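Reviewers asked in the last cycle whether our approach scales beyond single polypeptides. To address this, we selected a multi-component target totalling 509 residues and predicted its structure end to end. The input consisted of the following lines:
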Amino acid sequence: MESKKVMMYLVAGLYFASVIVGIFLVIQSAPRGKTVKPRGVDFKLKQKGVAVVYIYGPISVAQQETPMPFWGFGSDRIVTRLKKIRRDPNVKAVVLRINSPGGSVGAVQEIYQEVEKLKGQGKKVVVSMGDVAASGGYYVACIADKIMANPGTITGSIGVIAQLGNVEELFKKIGVKIEVIKSGKHKDIGSASRPMTHQERKILQDLINNAYEQFLEAIVNGRNMPYEEVKKLADGTIYTGQQAKENGLIDELGNLEEAINLAGKLAGIKGEPNIIKDYTPFERLFDIFGQQFEENAFNKILNKKGLRLEYILE
Amino acid sequence: MQVSEVLYDIIVAPKEGIQKFRLLRKNLLISIIIVLIGIFSQTLASLIINSPPLGYLTFFLSFGFISKFLFILSFWIFLAAMFHFLASWSGGTGKVKELFILLGIGFIPCSLLPAGAILAKALGPTGYMLYAIFYLFLLVWFVRLQILSLKEVYSIPTEKAFFIYIAPLLIAVAFGFILFLLGIGSIIFLIASNI
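The resulting structure, written as structure tokens, was:
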């Protein structure tokens, strides 16, 4: 009995000794210097750098159809991301990677305004154009400090378009008659079941002209180009990156890597800049499926009917 | 009977030790103290091995320790209930409270972790390798003590106690696998319906 007691006291003594030595070791070997408070699950030190924001596919306010309701590609998500970047002191410059034929006027203007606010905060903005950055894609780009494109990038197509169908004859053939009850004479403007009147055409043309003037104004402000010069280029013509550089619509030819380096240089970052990506782990996990859904949504948007003003390359 | 003697018996002759532990007064309190010491030892050992920055120490020792204890406590209650259900269902008779108390003594081997971690730190890379083997050894010891407790409380053979012990794990793995298959299936279905 006595030996058991002695043994247990010995074990307990060894335990307390190991605890004391352990605590001493932990304090002794802990790295000194600046420590960061735990932020979420990320314990790493965040470095200053360049954020890359991707604007891919047709731009629309509405979230395009994806399997997860919170994982969409609408302009709201881009605006939210830009807003987050604007408040992040570690982001010194932003590269907008644009690969888009444009999109709806409202969505494009919302992104444009957010980029303008970014610049207002002193952050440098560089655009890197991919295959296409035309119409609304160019609208978003023109506010940047510098625009870079590949020599063969499709850009330009500055203008506004609204397309309306007329299925009156088809309805007649299949025996469908649409009864319209409206509060005012222009409430069914753009109806597909009857021909457009001259007055309606004038209203819609004025609408298009107004949106077009807004586009020109955005380029004049963003690029510091004379109005007349912009108007000359803005007849809907598409340009290659090389042509766009010659006529002043872009600044330099180069790829995404060069755009990131230029952004870092403009922000005063020495050497190769650190790239800040703010993808959530969930987005990263589902990135592999991204293209699939984007392509599908692209077709759906192109097939949509109804009155919709678009800065888009057809 | 002294607590120190019973603990000695649990280490040297577990079967006898567990039988004596059942007869101890206030054994629930002793069991909880053993679990607390076990969790503290585990936390300290991981701090010795990982050497986190000084600023994190208070975070790990306070929040880490409390959250670990709460997690283990809820898991402890859940497992005792689960084992009781399975043991009763397979013909064993015993009290769930007694099982709950005895499951706690499985944490006795954890008290050796800080000493192992100190040695590992002193030996360098080889030490970490040995520490992993040591950890595995303690884990086997931990499982053995809990299976013996199950066997003692419900008076069932060792094989049955072993199957009851691993049953929740097997159920969890099977359930997880079904959930994984359902998740993958729904993703494939969604992709296919979008093409």
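Residues 3-194 of chain B form one domain. We regard this as preliminary and will revisit it once experimental data from Aim 1 are available.
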